[in-house]
Design goal:
- By secondary structure, the chain is an alpha+beta fold.
- The chain folds into two domains: 179 residues, 2-Layer Sandwich (Fructose-1,6-Bisphosphatase, Chain A, domain 1); 125 residues, D-Maltodextrin-Binding Protein, domain 2 (3-Layer(aba) Sandwich).
- It is 31% helix and 23% strand.
- It is built from eight helices and 15 strands.
- It has an eight-stranded mixed β-sheet with strand order 4-3-5-6-7-8-9-10, sandwiched between helices.
- Strand 1 and strand 2 form a beta hairpin.
- Helix 2 packs antiparallel against helix 3 and helix 5 crosses helix 8.
- The radius of gyration is 19 Å and the shape is globular.
- The structure holds 2,5-anhydro-1,6-di-O-phosphono-D-mannitol and magnesium ion (MG).
Length: 322
């Protein structure tokens, strides 16, 4: 029998009872999602539903199932007041008396399931602003400075929960024998100096000169700074952020020329990942300001993101300023 610190024990000493209920419901729901993903090829749940979501993107069957599972489990937690998801147009009230609201990407990188690449569930939790009753959009329009807890479950060679409740970042691996999460990655710190850069370089022609020049800088020869740096890009944000947290480096999803908004969503992708990055000693910005300082104004708002080791995010900023 595996020994170690269980997620349940860890949470007892790190967060309040209501928050624990939300986190533990998520953790249970994500066990189910992880199992569905593991068996997807033999249970006819690969592929698309034939529908598009509110953002005009193709919905995979597993996107839809993951969304429903999370809603069911969070409803059962009785502590989750409201739910915002990439897969739902508007916000959903789960428990009118709940204290917390949650924004999620139920299955990030789902376009990669067919090739067995890592995918994940990303979440960000804040306290609701409205007192009781149905939640509203304003409850969700809170900056990342108000985040109480954030993280993701990555379904890769292991299922791992990467979590911060505002006191550093810890990883919990799901033991497949007893189905319990154990602390496996305590006190994760991002390397201050990164040697990996990560972006969809095929789009380089669409990006501003600042991004292009930074990419050229990363691929130049320079012994003193160990360049060229390695290029790594999974195309699944949870996978790319997992590598960035563990090995250091920078992950970038820029805006197209002249714009501020990239592809990735502020509330349920960029805020939680930037919260984790900062809690691990790194940085997350949109190229001009901290992601956590951005005031959200739309539920499915997008932003550019530059996230990871401090030195590389700062270096990218030098190039972006021109
Ligand atoms: P999704 O939320 O619809 O899965 O899209 C987000 C994903 C991220 O996981 C990943 O970083 C990005 O899209 C990759 O985009 P691209 O294919 O343009 O490189
Ligand atoms: Mg996503």
């Amino acid at each position: 029998m595996a020994k170690g610190v269980l997620l349940t024990d860890f949470l007892e000493s790190n967060s309040d009872i209501e928050l624990n209920k939300v986190l533990l419901s998520l953790a249970e729901g994500c066990k189910i999602i992880g199992r569905l993903i593991n068996n997807a090829g033999i249970t006819n749940i690969l592929g698309v539903t034939g529908e598009t979501n509110v953002q005009g993107e193709t919905v995979q069957k597993l996107d839809d199932l993951s969304n429903k599972i999370l809603m069911d489990y969070l409803l059962a937690s009785e502590a989750t007041a409201g739910y915002l998801s990439e897969e739902n147009e508007g916000v959903v009230t789960l428990n009118e008396n709940g204290k917390y609201i949650i924004s999620v990407d139920p299955l990030d990188g789902s376009g990669n399931i067919d090739i067995c690449a890592p995918v994940g569930t990303i979440f960000n939790i804040v306290e609701r602003l409205s007192p009781v009753g149905p939640v509203n959009d304003a409850d969700f329009f809170q900056t990342g400075n108000k985040t109480i807890a954030a993280g993701y479950f990555i379904y890769g060679s292991s299922t791992i929960l990467i979590l911060s409740t505002g006191n550093g970042v810890n990883g919990f691996t799901l033991n497949t024998e007893n189905h319990q999460y154990f602390l496996s990655h305590p006190a994760i710190k991002i390397a201050e100096r990164g040697k990996i850069y990560s972006l969809n370089q095929g789009n380089i022609g669409k990006f501003d000169d600042g991004v292009k020049n930074f990419v050229s800088y990363c691929s130049e020869n320079d012994k003193a700074t160990s360049r060229p740096y390695s290029l790594r890009y999974i195309g699944s944000m949870v996978g790319d952020i997992q590598r960035t947290l563990i090995k250091g480096g920078i992950f970038i999803y820029p805006a197209n020329k002249g714009g501020l908004k990239g592809k990735l969503r502020l509330l349920y992708e960029c805020i939680p990942m930037s919260y984790l990055a900062e809690q691990a000693g790194g940085k997350g910005t949109d190229g001009t300001q901290r992601i956590l300082d951005i005031q959200p104004t739309e539920l499915h708002e997008r932003t550019a993101i530059f996230i990871g080791s401090k030195d590389l995010v700062d270096k990218a900023h030098e190039f972006l300023k021109g």
